[in-house]
Amino acid sequence: MTTSSTPGLARFNTLAAGEAAAALHEVCASAAWGSSVLAHRPYAGTEALFSASDAATAELSAEDLAEAMAGHPPIGRPKPGDPASAREQRGMAGASEELKAEMLELNLAYQERFGHVFLICATGATGEQMRDAVKARIGNSPEQEREIVRTELGKINRIRLARLVQDS
Question: Treating both helix axes as pointing N-terminal to C-terminal, what angle do 62-70 and 31-39 enclose, rounded to 10 degrees?
Answer without folding.
Answer: 100
